[in-house]
Amino acid sequence: MTVDPPTTASLFTGLSAFPLTPLADDRLDERSFARQIERLAGAGVDSITVLGSTGSYAYLTSEERARAAALAVANAGTTPVFVGVGALRTSQVLANVRSAEDAGARGILLAPMTYQPLTADDVYGLFGTVAEATELPVIVYDNPGTTRFEFTTELYGRIAELPGIASIKIPGVPADPGEARTRVDEIRAVVPGHVTIGVSGDASAAAGLNAGCDTWYSVIGGTLPDVALKISRAAREGRGADAVAESARLAPLWGLFAEFGGSLRVVAAIAEHLGLAPERCLPLPIQGLSEAQRSRVADVVRDLGLDG
Amino acid sequence: MTVDPPTTASLFTGLSAFPLTPLADDRLDERSFARQIERLAGAGVDSITVLGSTGSYAYLTSEERARAAALAVANAGTTPVFVGVGALRTSQVLANVRSAEDAGARGILLAPMTYQPLTADDVYGLFGTVAEATELPVIVYDNPGTTRFEFTTELYGRIAELPGIASIKIPGVPADPGEARTRVDEIRAVVPGHVTIGVSGDASAAAGLNAGCDTWYSVIGGTLPDVALKISRAAREGRGADAVAESARLAPLWGLFAEFGGSLRVVAAIAEHLGLAPERCLPLPIQGLSEAQRSRVADVVRDLGLDG
Questions:
Q1: How many domains does chain B have?
Q2: A198: domain CATH number?
Q3: Which of the residues in chain A have pLDDT under 50?
Q4: φ, ψ dihedrals at A71, nearest 5°
Q5: Helix, strand, or coil (residue B279)
Q6: What's residue B10's pLDDT?
Protein backbone atom coordinates (compact mmCIF):
# COMPACT_ATOMS: atom_id res chain seq x y z
CA MET A 1 0.00 0.00 0.00
CA THR A 2 1.21 3.46 -0.85
CA VAL A 3 0.68 6.17 1.72
CA ASP A 4 1.15 9.67 0.42
CA PRO A 5 2.32 12.15 3.02
CA PRO A 6 -0.84 14.16 3.65
CA THR A 7 -0.89 17.89 3.14
CA THR A 8 -2.00 20.06 6.02
CA ALA A 9 -5.32 20.55 4.27
CA SER A 10 -6.04 16.83 4.14
CA LEU A 11 -4.43 15.89 7.44
CA PHE A 12 -7.68 16.08 9.36
CA THR A 13 -9.83 14.08 6.93
CA GLY A 14 -10.65 10.41 6.45
CA LEU A 15 -10.46 7.84 9.21
CA SER A 16 -8.65 8.73 12.40
CA ALA A 17 -8.24 5.64 14.56
CA PHE A 18 -8.37 5.92 18.36
CA PRO A 19 -6.47 3.02 19.96
CA LEU A 20 -6.70 1.89 23.55
CA THR A 21 -3.76 2.50 25.86
CA PRO A 22 -3.60 -0.91 27.54
CA LEU A 23 -2.39 -1.25 31.10
CA ALA A 24 -0.97 -4.40 32.65
CA ASP A 25 -0.73 -4.36 36.44
CA ASP A 26 -1.41 -0.63 36.38
CA ARG A 27 1.50 0.12 34.05
CA LEU A 28 1.50 1.06 30.38
CA ASP A 29 1.78 -2.17 28.40
CA GLU A 30 4.27 -0.84 25.90
CA ARG A 31 4.49 -3.96 23.79
CA SER A 32 0.79 -4.33 23.06
CA PHE A 33 0.41 -0.58 22.59
CA ALA A 34 3.22 -0.50 20.02
CA ARG A 35 1.75 -3.52 18.22
CA GLN A 36 -1.65 -1.83 18.04
CA ILE A 37 -0.10 1.24 16.45
CA GLU A 38 1.79 -0.85 13.86
CA ARG A 39 -1.40 -2.75 13.07
CA LEU A 40 -3.37 0.47 12.50
CA ALA A 41 -0.67 1.95 10.27
CA GLY A 42 -0.54 -1.31 8.34
CA ALA A 43 -4.30 -1.31 7.86
CA GLY A 44 -4.07 2.08 6.16
CA VAL A 45 -5.99 4.37 8.46
CA ASP A 46 -5.55 8.03 7.56
CA SER A 47 -4.33 9.04 11.00
CA ILE A 48 -3.96 7.66 14.49
CA THR A 49 -5.13 9.65 17.50
CA VAL A 50 -3.55 8.31 20.66
CA LEU A 51 -4.59 9.31 24.16
CA GLY A 52 -8.17 10.06 23.26
CA SER A 53 -10.91 9.07 25.66
CA THR A 54 -10.57 5.51 24.39
CA GLY A 55 -6.85 5.84 25.07
CA SER A 56 -7.55 6.62 28.75
CA TYR A 57 -5.63 9.89 28.60
CA ALA A 58 -7.42 11.27 31.64
CA TYR A 59 -6.09 8.47 33.83
CA LEU A 60 -2.43 8.57 32.87
CA THR A 61 0.43 10.54 34.37
CA SER A 62 2.24 13.11 32.26
CA GLU A 63 5.20 10.73 32.10
CA GLU A 64 3.04 7.86 30.85
CA ARG A 65 1.49 10.18 28.30
CA ALA A 66 4.86 11.36 27.03
CA ARG A 67 5.96 7.75 26.70
CA ALA A 68 2.78 6.71 24.86
CA ALA A 69 3.09 9.63 22.44
CA ALA A 70 6.70 8.75 21.67
CA LEU A 71 5.90 5.07 21.20
CA ALA A 72 3.03 5.91 18.88
CA VAL A 73 5.10 8.10 16.59
CA ALA A 74 7.93 5.55 16.62
CA ASN A 75 5.60 2.77 15.48
CA ALA A 76 3.25 4.57 13.10
CA GLY A 77 5.63 4.83 10.13
CA THR A 78 4.35 7.57 7.81
CA THR A 79 0.85 7.60 9.29
CA PRO A 80 0.30 10.92 11.08
CA VAL A 81 -0.17 10.71 14.83
CA PHE A 82 -2.33 13.10 16.82
CA VAL A 83 -2.04 13.18 20.60
CA GLY A 84 -4.65 13.97 23.23
CA VAL A 85 -3.34 16.64 25.60
CA GLY A 86 -6.37 17.35 27.81
CA ALA A 87 -6.04 17.65 31.57
CA LEU A 88 -7.93 19.36 34.36
CA ARG A 89 -5.40 22.15 34.82
CA THR A 90 -4.12 24.40 32.06
CA SER A 91 -0.49 24.06 33.13
CA GLN A 92 -0.82 20.27 32.90
CA VAL A 93 -2.30 20.62 29.41
CA LEU A 94 0.69 22.71 28.37
CA ALA A 95 3.08 20.08 29.72
CA ASN A 96 1.29 17.48 27.60
CA VAL A 97 1.53 19.77 24.57
CA ARG A 98 5.29 19.93 25.06
CA SER A 99 5.60 16.16 25.23
CA ALA A 100 3.41 15.74 22.13
CA GLU A 101 5.66 18.17 20.27
CA ASP A 102 8.76 16.36 21.50
CA ALA A 103 7.31 13.04 20.35
CA GLY A 104 6.75 14.32 16.82
CA ALA A 105 2.97 14.52 16.86
CA ARG A 106 1.32 16.11 13.81
CA GLY A 107 -1.59 17.52 15.77
CA ILE A 108 -3.11 17.64 19.22
CA LEU A 109 -6.57 16.82 20.49
CA LEU A 110 -7.91 18.91 23.34
CA ALA A 111 -11.04 18.26 25.38
CA PRO A 112 -12.11 20.64 28.15
CA MET A 113 -11.91 18.20 31.04
CA THR A 114 -13.93 19.29 34.03
CA TYR A 115 -14.21 18.65 37.72
CA GLN A 116 -15.72 21.99 38.61
CA PRO A 117 -18.09 22.84 35.75
CA LEU A 118 -16.44 25.29 33.34
CA THR A 119 -17.95 28.37 31.76
CA ALA A 120 -17.77 29.07 28.02
CA ASP A 121 -15.19 31.78 28.76
CA ASP A 122 -13.07 29.33 30.76
CA VAL A 123 -13.06 26.93 27.81
CA TYR A 124 -12.39 29.65 25.26
CA GLY A 125 -9.50 30.85 27.41
CA LEU A 126 -8.08 27.33 27.58
CA PHE A 127 -8.11 26.90 23.81
CA GLY A 128 -6.64 30.36 23.36
CA THR A 129 -3.77 29.63 25.72
CA VAL A 130 -2.99 26.31 24.06
CA ALA A 131 -3.30 27.61 20.50
CA GLU A 132 -0.87 30.38 21.38
CA ALA A 133 1.59 27.96 22.98
CA THR A 134 2.13 25.60 20.05
CA GLU A 135 2.58 25.45 16.30
CA LEU A 136 0.78 22.12 16.19
CA PRO A 137 -2.73 22.13 14.73
CA VAL A 138 -5.43 21.65 17.35
CA ILE A 139 -8.49 19.40 17.19
CA VAL A 140 -11.31 20.72 19.40
CA TYR A 141 -12.66 17.70 21.21
CA ASP A 142 -16.34 17.87 22.16
CA ASN A 143 -17.20 14.80 24.23
CA PRO A 144 -19.94 15.79 26.67
CA GLY A 145 -20.37 12.19 27.87
CA THR A 146 -16.97 12.34 29.54
CA THR A 147 -16.14 16.02 30.00
CA ARG A 148 -19.70 17.02 30.96
CA PHE A 149 -19.07 20.29 29.17
CA GLU A 150 -21.70 21.26 26.60
CA PHE A 151 -20.35 23.23 23.67
CA THR A 152 -22.75 25.52 21.87
CA THR A 153 -22.48 25.99 18.13
CA GLU A 154 -21.62 29.61 18.85
CA LEU A 155 -18.67 28.52 21.00
CA TYR A 156 -17.44 26.23 18.19
CA GLY A 157 -17.38 29.32 16.04
CA ARG A 158 -15.49 31.49 18.54
CA ILE A 159 -12.87 28.83 19.18
CA ALA A 160 -12.51 27.89 15.49
CA GLU A 161 -11.43 31.47 14.76
CA LEU A 162 -8.35 31.03 16.95
CA PRO A 163 -5.15 30.52 14.95
CA GLY A 164 -4.10 26.87 14.87
CA ILE A 165 -7.53 25.32 15.22
CA ALA A 166 -7.70 22.65 12.52
CA SER A 167 -10.71 20.48 13.23
CA ILE A 168 -13.67 19.93 15.51
CA LYS A 169 -14.55 16.49 16.80
CA ILE A 170 -18.30 16.57 17.31
CA PRO A 171 -20.46 14.01 19.10
CA GLY A 172 -22.84 11.84 17.07
CA VAL A 173 -25.25 13.38 14.58
CA PRO A 174 -28.97 12.56 14.19
CA ALA A 175 -29.65 9.30 12.33
CA ASP A 176 -32.03 11.02 9.91
CA PRO A 177 -29.98 12.11 6.85
CA GLY A 178 -31.76 15.46 6.54
CA GLU A 179 -31.34 16.30 10.20
CA ALA A 180 -27.72 15.19 10.10
CA ARG A 181 -27.04 17.43 7.10
CA THR A 182 -28.77 20.36 8.82
CA ARG A 183 -26.60 19.90 11.90
CA VAL A 184 -23.34 19.66 9.94
CA ASP A 185 -24.30 22.69 7.79
CA GLU A 186 -25.09 24.66 10.94
CA ILE A 187 -21.58 24.04 12.26
CA ARG A 188 -19.98 24.65 8.87
CA ALA A 189 -21.66 28.05 8.74
CA VAL A 190 -19.83 29.28 11.85
CA VAL A 191 -16.32 27.86 11.35
CA PRO A 192 -13.65 28.97 8.86
CA GLY A 193 -13.34 26.86 5.69
CA HIS A 194 -10.00 25.33 6.67
CA VAL A 195 -11.44 23.80 9.85
CA THR A 196 -12.61 20.24 9.23
CA ILE A 197 -15.54 18.65 11.01
CA GLY A 198 -15.15 15.14 12.35
CA VAL A 199 -17.91 12.93 13.61
CA SER A 200 -17.55 10.63 16.58
CA GLY A 201 -20.06 8.28 18.14
CA ASP A 202 -19.30 5.30 15.92
CA ALA A 203 -22.94 4.29 15.48
CA SER A 204 -23.68 7.55 13.71
CA ALA A 205 -20.44 7.79 11.74
CA ALA A 206 -21.95 6.73 8.41
CA ALA A 207 -24.73 9.28 8.86
CA GLY A 208 -22.20 11.96 9.76
CA LEU A 209 -19.88 11.24 6.85
CA ASN A 210 -22.79 11.13 4.41
CA ALA A 211 -23.96 14.46 5.86
CA GLY A 212 -20.66 16.08 4.95
CA CYS A 213 -18.31 15.46 7.86
CA ASP A 214 -14.70 15.39 6.66
CA THR A 215 -13.41 12.94 9.20
CA TRP A 216 -14.45 10.11 11.44
CA TYR A 217 -12.73 10.16 14.83
CA SER A 218 -13.32 6.51 15.43
CA VAL A 219 -13.24 4.27 18.48
CA ILE A 220 -13.68 1.04 16.51
CA GLY A 221 -11.11 2.32 14.03
CA GLY A 222 -8.54 1.89 16.80
CA THR A 223 -9.30 -1.79 17.36
CA LEU A 224 -11.22 -2.95 14.26
CA PRO A 225 -9.65 -0.79 11.54
CA ASP A 226 -10.76 -2.87 8.55
CA VAL A 227 -14.47 -2.53 9.18
CA ALA A 228 -14.08 1.17 10.01
CA LEU A 229 -12.15 1.72 6.75
CA LYS A 230 -14.93 -0.05 4.83
CA ILE A 231 -17.45 2.53 6.12
CA SER A 232 -15.08 5.48 5.78
CA ARG A 233 -14.04 4.66 2.21
CA ALA A 234 -17.59 3.96 1.04
CA ALA A 235 -18.69 7.36 2.31
CA ARG A 236 -15.69 9.17 0.81
CA GLU A 237 -16.14 7.47 -2.57
CA GLY A 238 -19.75 8.59 -2.77
CA ARG A 239 -21.17 5.16 -1.96
CA GLY A 240 -23.22 6.50 0.92
CA ALA A 241 -25.69 3.62 0.86
CA ASP A 242 -22.85 1.12 1.24
CA ALA A 243 -21.57 3.04 4.27
CA VAL A 244 -25.03 2.99 5.83
CA ALA A 245 -25.48 -0.71 5.04
CA GLU A 246 -22.18 -1.66 6.67
CA SER A 247 -23.01 0.45 9.70
CA ALA A 248 -26.44 -1.19 9.89
CA ARG A 249 -24.80 -4.62 9.73
CA LEU A 250 -22.88 -3.66 12.89
CA ALA A 251 -26.09 -2.89 14.80
CA PRO A 252 -25.42 -5.65 17.36
CA LEU A 253 -22.13 -3.94 18.19
CA TRP A 254 -23.79 -0.53 18.58
CA GLY A 255 -26.36 -2.26 20.75
CA LEU A 256 -23.63 -3.45 23.10
CA PHE A 257 -22.20 0.09 23.26
CA ALA A 258 -25.60 1.38 24.31
CA GLU A 259 -26.25 -1.42 26.77
CA PHE A 260 -22.84 -1.44 28.44
CA GLY A 261 -22.52 2.28 29.11
CA GLY A 262 -20.58 3.39 26.04
CA SER A 263 -17.91 2.10 23.72
CA LEU A 264 -14.89 1.91 26.02
CA ARG A 265 -15.61 -1.21 28.03
CA VAL A 266 -16.86 -3.06 24.93
CA VAL A 267 -13.87 -2.15 22.77
CA ALA A 268 -11.48 -3.07 25.58
CA ALA A 269 -13.20 -6.45 25.84
CA ILE A 270 -12.87 -6.92 22.06
CA ALA A 271 -9.18 -6.03 22.13
CA GLU A 272 -8.61 -8.44 25.01
CA HIS A 273 -10.62 -11.15 23.22
CA LEU A 274 -8.57 -10.69 20.04
CA GLY A 275 -5.28 -10.77 21.96
CA LEU A 276 -4.51 -7.14 21.16
CA ALA A 277 -4.44 -6.12 24.81
CA PRO A 278 -3.75 -7.92 28.08
CA GLU A 279 -6.67 -9.03 30.22
CA ARG A 280 -8.27 -6.24 32.28
CA CYS A 281 -6.42 -3.56 30.38
CA LEU A 282 -8.46 -0.57 31.60
CA PRO A 283 -7.34 1.63 34.51
CA LEU A 284 -8.99 0.85 37.84
CA PRO A 285 -11.48 1.79 39.23
CA ILE A 286 -12.95 0.91 35.81
CA GLN A 287 -13.44 -2.82 36.18
CA GLY A 288 -14.55 -3.46 32.64
CA LEU A 289 -17.18 -5.96 31.62
CA SER A 290 -18.23 -9.00 33.62
CA GLU A 291 -17.55 -12.50 32.32
CA ALA A 292 -21.13 -12.83 31.15
CA GLN A 293 -20.95 -9.53 29.31
CA ARG A 294 -17.63 -10.50 27.73
CA SER A 295 -19.12 -13.69 26.49
CA ARG A 296 -21.85 -11.72 24.74
CA VAL A 297 -19.23 -9.44 23.20
CA ALA A 298 -17.32 -12.46 21.92
CA ASP A 299 -20.52 -13.82 20.36
CA VAL A 300 -21.14 -10.55 18.53
CA VAL A 301 -17.53 -10.40 17.33
CA ARG A 302 -17.84 -13.92 15.94
CA ASP A 303 -21.30 -13.43 14.43
CA LEU A 304 -20.20 -10.25 12.64
CA GLY A 305 -16.96 -11.80 11.44
CA LEU A 306 -14.86 -9.18 13.22
CA ASP A 307 -12.28 -11.73 14.39
CA GLY A 308 -11.04 -12.56 10.92
CA MET B 1 -10.51 28.42 74.09
CA THR B 2 -10.19 24.80 75.21
CA VAL B 3 -10.23 22.15 72.54
CA ASP B 4 -10.70 18.63 73.83
CA PRO B 5 -9.09 15.96 71.70
CA PRO B 6 -12.11 14.32 70.06
CA THR B 7 -12.77 10.63 70.47
CA THR B 8 -13.17 8.55 67.33
CA ALA B 9 -16.91 8.55 67.91
CA SER B 10 -17.15 12.33 67.86
CA LEU B 11 -14.45 12.96 65.28
CA PHE B 12 -16.91 13.15 62.40
CA THR B 13 -19.45 15.46 64.03
CA GLY B 14 -19.89 19.20 64.30
CA LEU B 15 -18.49 21.67 61.80
CA SER B 16 -15.86 20.49 59.36
CA ALA B 17 -14.37 23.46 57.52
CA PHE B 18 -13.28 23.11 53.88
CA PRO B 19 -10.60 25.71 53.05
CA LEU B 20 -9.49 26.76 49.62
CA THR B 21 -6.05 25.73 48.41
CA PRO B 22 -4.91 29.06 46.95
CA LEU B 23 -2.56 29.14 44.00
CA ALA B 24 -0.31 32.05 43.07
CA ASP B 25 1.18 31.89 39.58
CA ASP B 26 0.02 28.29 39.32
CA ARG B 27 1.87 27.23 42.47
CA LEU B 28 0.55 26.38 45.90
CA ASP B 29 0.58 29.59 47.94
CA GLU B 30 1.92 27.99 51.10
CA ARG B 31 1.82 31.11 53.23
CA SER B 32 -1.84 31.97 52.70
CA PHE B 33 -2.82 28.31 52.93
CA ALA B 34 -1.06 27.92 56.28
CA ARG B 35 -2.63 31.15 57.55
CA GLN B 36 -6.08 29.94 56.57
CA ILE B 37 -5.56 26.72 58.50
CA GLU B 38 -4.38 28.59 61.62
CA ARG B 39 -7.37 30.90 61.36
CA LEU B 40 -9.82 27.98 61.19
CA ALA B 41 -8.23 26.22 64.15
CA GLY B 42 -8.32 29.48 66.07
CA ALA B 43 -11.99 29.98 65.28
CA GLY B 44 -12.77 26.65 66.92
CA VAL B 45 -14.10 24.55 64.04
CA ASP B 46 -14.45 20.89 64.97
CA SER B 47 -12.31 19.66 62.10
CA ILE B 48 -10.64 20.90 58.95
CA THR B 49 -10.99 19.00 55.70
CA VAL B 50 -8.32 20.06 53.25
CA LEU B 51 -8.27 19.14 49.59
CA GLY B 52 -12.01 18.87 49.24
CA SER B 53 -13.66 20.15 46.08
CA THR B 54 -13.29 23.67 47.48
CA GLY B 55 -9.65 22.83 48.05
CA SER B 56 -9.17 22.07 44.34
CA TYR B 57 -7.85 18.59 45.04
CA ALA B 58 -8.69 17.40 41.55
CA TYR B 59 -6.36 19.94 39.98
CA LEU B 60 -3.27 19.38 42.10
CA THR B 61 -0.36 17.02 41.58
CA SER B 62 0.30 14.30 44.11
CA GLU B 63 3.33 16.27 45.28
CA GLU B 64 1.26 19.43 45.82
CA ARG B 65 -1.33 17.38 47.67
CA ALA B 66 1.25 15.81 49.95
CA ARG B 67 2.63 19.25 50.72
CA ALA B 68 -0.82 20.74 51.42
CA ALA B 69 -1.69 17.85 53.74
CA ALA B 70 1.54 18.27 55.68
CA LEU B 71 1.11 22.04 55.94
CA ALA B 72 -2.45 21.63 57.16
CA VAL B 73 -1.54 19.23 59.95
CA ALA B 74 1.44 21.39 60.93
CA ASN B 75 -0.74 24.49 61.29
CA ALA B 76 -3.95 23.04 62.72
CA GLY B 77 -2.77 22.56 66.29
CA THR B 78 -5.06 20.05 67.99
CA THR B 79 -7.86 20.45 65.45
CA PRO B 80 -8.20 17.19 63.51
CA VAL B 81 -7.38 17.39 59.82
CA PHE B 82 -9.04 15.24 57.17
CA VAL B 83 -7.55 15.04 53.70
CA GLY B 84 -9.24 14.52 50.35
CA VAL B 85 -7.58 11.66 48.48
CA GLY B 86 -9.77 11.29 45.38
CA ALA B 87 -8.25 10.87 41.93
CA LEU B 88 -9.33 9.36 38.64
CA ARG B 89 -7.16 6.24 38.97
CA THR B 90 -7.17 3.92 41.95
CA SER B 91 -3.38 3.77 42.16
CA GLN B 92 -3.28 7.57 42.35
CA VAL B 93 -5.86 7.50 45.14
CA LEU B 94 -3.68 5.06 47.06
CA ALA B 95 -0.65 7.33 46.64
CA ASN B 96 -2.69 10.19 48.10
CA VAL B 97 -3.77 7.96 50.99
CA ARG B 98 -0.11 7.30 51.77
CA SER B 99 0.72 11.00 51.80
CA ALA B 100 -2.28 11.76 54.01
CA GLU B 101 -1.10 9.09 56.45
CA ASP B 102 2.43 10.46 56.37
CA ALA B 103 1.12 13.96 57.05
CA GLY B 104 -0.72 12.84 60.17
CA ALA B 105 -4.28 13.14 58.85
CA ARG B 106 -7.01 11.84 61.17
CA GLY B 107 -9.28 10.79 58.33
CA ILE B 108 -9.58 10.79 54.55
CA LEU B 109 -12.30 12.02 52.23
CA LEU B 110 -12.88 10.04 49.05
CA ALA B 111 -15.05 11.06 46.11
CA PRO B 112 -15.43 8.78 43.09
CA MET B 113 -13.99 11.11 40.48
CA THR B 114 -15.04 10.22 36.97
CA TYR B 115 -14.00 10.81 33.42
CA GLN B 116 -15.56 7.67 32.00
CA PRO B 117 -18.82 7.20 33.90
CA LEU B 118 -18.39 4.60 36.67
CA THR B 119 -20.72 1.77 37.59
CA ALA B 120 -21.87 1.14 41.17
CA ASP B 121 -19.58 -1.88 41.27
CA ASP B 122 -16.62 0.21 40.14
CA VAL B 123 -17.27 2.67 42.98
CA TYR B 124 -17.85 -0.07 45.54
CA GLY B 125 -14.58 -1.67 44.44
CA LEU B 126 -12.74 1.63 44.82
CA PHE B 127 -13.96 2.14 48.38
CA GLY B 128 -13.18 -1.47 49.22
CA THR B 129 -9.62 -1.17 47.95
CA VAL B 130 -9.02 2.07 49.84
CA ALA B 131 -10.64 0.88 53.08
CA GLU B 132 -8.44 -2.18 52.98
CA ALA B 133 -5.28 -0.15 52.34
CA THR B 134 -5.45 2.20 55.34
CA GLU B 135 -6.24 2.35 59.02
CA LEU B 136 -7.53 5.90 58.61
CA PRO B 137 -11.30 6.39 58.83
CA VAL B 138 -12.90 7.15 55.47
CA ILE B 139 -15.52 9.79 54.66
CA VAL B 140 -17.60 8.79 51.62
CA TYR B 141 -17.87 11.92 49.52
CA ASP B 142 -21.03 12.20 47.42
CA ASN B 143 -20.74 15.30 45.25
CA PRO B 144 -22.63 14.63 42.02
CA GLY B 145 -22.18 18.22 40.81
CA THR B 146 -18.46 17.59 40.36
CA THR B 147 -18.03 13.82 40.12
CA ARG B 148 -21.17 13.29 38.01
CA PHE B 149 -21.58 10.00 39.86
CA GLU B 150 -25.01 9.44 41.37
CA PHE B 151 -24.97 7.37 44.56
CA THR B 152 -28.10 5.45 45.41
CA THR B 153 -29.15 5.03 49.03
CA GLU B 154 -28.58 1.31 48.56
CA LEU B 155 -24.97 1.97 47.52
CA TYR B 156 -24.45 4.15 50.62
CA GLY B 157 -25.51 1.12 52.62
CA ARG B 158 -23.19 -1.32 50.82
CA ILE B 159 -20.19 0.97 51.14
CA ALA B 160 -20.94 1.92 54.76
CA GLU B 161 -20.64 -1.75 55.72
CA LEU B 162 -16.98 -1.76 54.69
CA PRO B 163 -14.57 -1.62 57.62
CA GLY B 164 -13.15 1.85 58.15
CA ILE B 165 -16.05 3.83 56.71
CA ALA B 166 -16.75 6.57 59.27
CA SER B 167 -19.03 9.10 57.65
CA ILE B 168 -20.99 9.96 54.52
CA LYS B 169 -20.93 13.46 53.09
CA ILE B 170 -24.28 13.86 51.37
CA PRO B 171 -25.40 16.64 49.03
CA GLY B 172 -28.03 19.13 50.21
CA VAL B 173 -31.29 17.98 51.75
CA PRO B 174 -34.80 19.28 50.91
CA ALA B 175 -35.64 22.63 52.51
CA ASP B 176 -38.88 21.29 53.98
CA PRO B 177 -38.10 20.01 57.52
CA GLY B 178 -40.31 16.94 57.18
CA GLU B 179 -38.82 15.95 53.84
CA ALA B 180 -35.30 16.61 55.12
CA ARG B 181 -35.93 14.37 58.14
CA THR B 182 -37.37 11.63 55.90
CA ARG B 183 -34.27 11.74 53.70
CA VAL B 184 -31.84 11.59 56.63
CA ASP B 185 -33.82 8.78 58.27
CA GLU B 186 -33.79 6.87 54.99
CA ILE B 187 -29.98 7.00 54.91
CA ARG B 188 -29.69 6.27 58.62
CA ALA B 189 -31.74 3.11 58.12
CA VAL B 190 -29.18 1.58 55.75
CA VAL B 191 -25.87 2.53 57.42
CA PRO B 192 -24.33 1.16 60.63
CA GLY B 193 -24.82 3.28 63.76
CA HIS B 194 -21.16 4.33 63.97
CA VAL B 195 -21.27 5.98 60.53
CA THR B 196 -22.11 9.66 60.81
CA ILE B 197 -24.06 11.58 58.20
CA GLY B 198 -22.79 14.97 57.14
CA VAL B 199 -24.67 17.50 55.08
CA SER B 200 -23.06 19.65 52.45
CA GLY B 201 -24.59 22.28 50.19
CA ASP B 202 -24.23 25.18 52.60
CA ALA B 203 -27.64 26.67 51.85
CA SER B 204 -29.34 23.56 53.21
CA ALA B 205 -27.00 22.96 56.13
CA ALA B 206 -29.36 24.29 58.80
CA ALA B 207 -32.15 22.11 57.42
CA GLY B 208 -29.82 19.11 57.32
CA LEU B 209 -28.53 19.57 60.86
CA ASN B 210 -32.03 20.11 62.20
CA ALA B 211 -33.09 16.94 60.39
CA GLY B 212 -30.51 14.92 62.28
CA CYS B 213 -27.27 15.18 60.33
CA ASP B 214 -24.28 14.79 62.65
CA THR B 215 -21.92 17.00 60.72
CA TRP B 216 -21.77 19.89 58.32
CA TYR B 217 -19.07 19.55 55.70
CA SER B 218 -18.95 23.23 55.00
CA VAL B 219 -17.58 25.36 52.20
CA ILE B 220 -18.22 28.67 53.99
CA GLY B 221 -16.80 27.13 57.16
CA GLY B 222 -13.44 27.15 55.40
CA THR B 223 -13.48 30.88 54.69
CA LEU B 224 -16.14 32.35 57.01
CA PRO B 225 -15.85 30.06 60.05
CA ASP B 226 -17.61 32.34 62.55
CA VAL B 227 -20.90 32.47 60.73
CA ALA B 228 -20.75 28.74 60.00
CA LEU B 229 -20.09 28.02 63.70
CA LYS B 230 -23.09 30.14 64.63
CA ILE B 231 -25.36 27.90 62.54
CA SER B 232 -23.64 24.69 63.57
CA ARG B 233 -23.72 25.45 67.31
CA ALA B 234 -27.33 26.61 67.26
CA ALA B 235 -28.39 23.36 65.63
CA ARG B 236 -26.33 21.22 67.99
CA GLU B 237 -27.63 23.02 71.07
CA GLY B 238 -31.22 22.40 70.06
CA ARG B 239 -31.84 25.96 68.89
CA GLY B 240 -32.99 24.84 65.47
CA ALA B 241 -34.94 28.01 64.78
CA ASP B 242 -31.82 30.12 65.41
CA ALA B 243 -29.88 27.98 62.91
CA VAL B 244 -32.60 28.44 60.32
CA ALA B 245 -32.80 32.18 60.99
CA GLU B 246 -29.05 32.66 60.57
CA SER B 247 -29.11 30.62 57.37
CA ALA B 248 -32.05 32.69 56.11
CA ARG B 249 -30.11 35.86 56.87
CA LEU B 250 -27.41 34.59 54.50
CA ALA B 251 -29.88 34.20 51.62
CA PRO B 252 -28.05 36.80 49.49
CA LEU B 253 -24.92 34.66 49.73
CA TRP B 254 -26.80 31.50 48.76
CA GLY B 255 -28.26 33.49 45.90
CA LEU B 256 -24.77 34.25 44.59
CA PHE B 257 -23.83 30.57 44.84
CA ALA B 258 -26.85 29.70 42.70
CA GLU B 259 -26.29 32.51 40.23
CA PHE B 260 -22.53 32.03 39.76
CA GLY B 261 -22.50 28.30 39.17
CA GLY B 262 -21.85 27.01 42.68
CA SER B 263 -19.95 28.01 45.76
CA LEU B 264 -16.34 27.75 44.59
CA ARG B 265 -15.94 30.90 42.53
CA VAL B 266 -17.89 32.95 45.08
CA VAL B 267 -15.93 31.72 48.08
CA ALA B 268 -12.64 32.25 46.24
CA ALA B 269 -13.73 35.83 45.50
CA ILE B 270 -14.60 36.32 49.18
CA ALA B 271 -11.24 34.96 50.32
CA GLU B 272 -9.45 37.21 47.83
CA HIS B 273 -11.56 40.20 48.92
CA LEU B 274 -10.75 39.55 52.59
CA GLY B 275 -7.04 39.18 51.86
CA LEU B 276 -7.05 35.49 52.79
CA ALA B 277 -5.92 34.37 49.35
CA PRO B 278 -3.96 35.99 46.53
CA GLU B 279 -5.85 37.43 43.57
CA ARG B 280 -7.02 34.83 41.03
CA CYS B 281 -6.26 31.96 43.38
CA LEU B 282 -8.17 29.24 41.50
CA PRO B 283 -6.43 26.85 39.09
CA LEU B 284 -6.77 27.76 35.42
CA PRO B 285 -8.75 27.13 33.26
CA ILE B 286 -11.16 28.27 36.02
CA GLN B 287 -11.01 32.02 35.60
CA GLY B 288 -13.15 32.88 38.60
CA LEU B 289 -15.61 35.72 38.72
CA SER B 290 -15.54 38.81 36.56
CA GLU B 291 -14.87 42.23 38.08
CA ALA B 292 -18.57 43.05 38.01
CA GLN B 293 -19.43 39.79 39.75
CA ARG B 294 -16.70 40.36 42.36
CA SER B 295 -18.11 43.75 43.09
CA ARG B 296 -21.50 42.17 43.81
CA VAL B 297 -19.84 39.61 46.07
CA ALA B 298 -18.10 42.39 47.98
CA ASP B 299 -21.42 44.19 48.42
CA VAL B 300 -23.03 41.08 49.89
CA VAL B 301 -20.07 40.48 52.19
CA ARG B 302 -20.36 44.05 53.48
CA ASP B 303 -24.16 44.04 53.76
CA LEU B 304 -24.12 40.78 55.74
CA GLY B 305 -21.28 41.94 57.97
CA LEU B 306 -19.07 39.04 56.90
CA ASP B 307 -15.95 41.19 56.71
CA GLY B 308 -15.83 41.88 60.42
A1: 1
A2: 3.20.20.70
A3: 1-6
A4: -60, -40
A5: coil
A6: 85
